[in-house]
What does this fold into?
Amino acid sequence: MQRPTLFLTVGLPGTGKTIAARLIEAEHNALRLTKDEWMKALFGPENPASAS
It folds into this structure.
């Protein structure tokens, strides 16, 4: 069994973190988790105050 690997992307806005994460997700059959997607799922896109 292969050991799990955790990939973290960190950087300034507009530097390609999302693009890199999507490439990693595709190349490694990985699960990509983002705060924004979780907050939208939990609180809905119309309620950003609850997501902060």
In short: The radius of gyration is 14 Å. The chain has three helices and no strands. Residues 17-28 form the longest helix (12 residues).
